Amino acid sequence: MAAPEFNVESGTYELYFEENLVKIIVDRIQETSRGDVSSFIEVTTTKPGYSPHLNYSKFTLTTTGQRKSLAQHLQNIMALNDDTWITYIEQMCVMVLKHYHQGDDPVELDRYESESDDVISLLHPVLVNGPNVIYGKGGIGKSLIALYFSLLLNLNKEHNDFTPVNYEMKPVLYLDWEGRLPTAKKRESMILRGLGLTKQPHNVVYIRMKQTLHSQINQVKRHIRRYHAGFLVIDSAAPASGSPSDEKETMRFFNALENIGDIPSLIIAHVSKNANESSIYGSVFNHNLARNVYELASQNEPGSRELYLGLIHKKSNDGRILEPTALKFEFDTSDQGDLLTISKSQTDFIPEADKAKSLRQRIIDVIRYNPMTLAEIIESLDMTKNDAGKLRATLSRYKTEFTKNSDDKWRMLNETERLHQTSFVGEQR
Fold first, then answer.
1. By the 8 A CB rule, do 44 and 14 touch?
2. CA-CA distance, 97 to 426, in Å (whole number)?
3. For residue 339, which phi and psi values (nearest 5 degrees)?
4. So what's the pLDDT on residue 425?
5. Percentage of the chain with pLDDT > 70?
6. Domain tally for the chain?
7. Which of 134, 195, 231, 320 is the most exposed place for a label (fewest CB within 10 A)?
8. What mean pLDDT do residues 200-221 have?
9. Residue 117 has what pLDDT?
10. Same-domain check for residues 98 and 39
């Protein structure tokens, strides 16, 4: 009996037994605390005279008793020569378990050549390839900004200094555990009208989800293949994982996300109930396993048509922490219906975002158009004399941005001065 063709892709194992035209797919592998390895298996055939579907069931790869019962079940459906089915099942278990426990092959970094799909940036500067997380209080606009970013990617549209990078205008798959289809459709229409893109073809595929991501991983994979999706939105992490406070469930969620395949994602999450700390609700792995994390803060006066949202960068695996970004969402009505215009804003309108700015940026804000002495800067920033040393150190550190006039007032360098200073600093190094 010939060995089967064996392929592994994104955590899914596929075995093909050519002599009987049988295919076995093993997916959603999980290891229990006792060391048992469970999975879901699908058995199909293209052999004439038989239904293509033979079996789909949960199966424990490490339990020998289940192998015999499954082989007998398959023999009753599609009779093969003696012991063929048990041989197939044994080969499946051995090959899958061996690969599962062995893991990926080691790679020598000095011999590794980066490929084009290793590019980190996705929607510059806010989203990267891999899992991105935006968390915040309920009802402040997380889903709104997720849909806005999704449309910019799908339409390859640069807007408000957000620029799609190496994205081929692929469809976006929006997996929603909390919202409703009519709400999502209305938001999409409003954003498109606000962008003036109502007649431009676009494709955001909305799917209302009911079970956890890891339990529906096969369906999600099929949707990705069907629509050739290039970006995934998870709305939101808590119901998608089942129990965000449980470390095992959180790990299972991120493993499922990885097993889906090489597709970047934006995960919407809620804020922790801890009043003294702003963090993602649930296990610390929600933060640790993400590649990029933002806190979303908002400011909205009752009855106002304007909503201010601030993105506060909390984590980056592959680069520096960005300064807070603020956007103004303005709701209005035109002859064509409701529209939503989105524009850049100052962080001043959002206390949490303004407070999160670096000292360098705060200095820029106060002296950009009005040179000040050190004492005046201290007063403008509501600092004390004890902060003078820290302030003086920051001004000196950024020699390519700040300079002091003869009257002891600090100001921003102009473009010519900045180029000269940059060249000078480079020569000094």
1. no
2. 55
3. -140, 160
4. 53
5. 94
6. 3
7. 320
8. 90
9. 47
10. yes
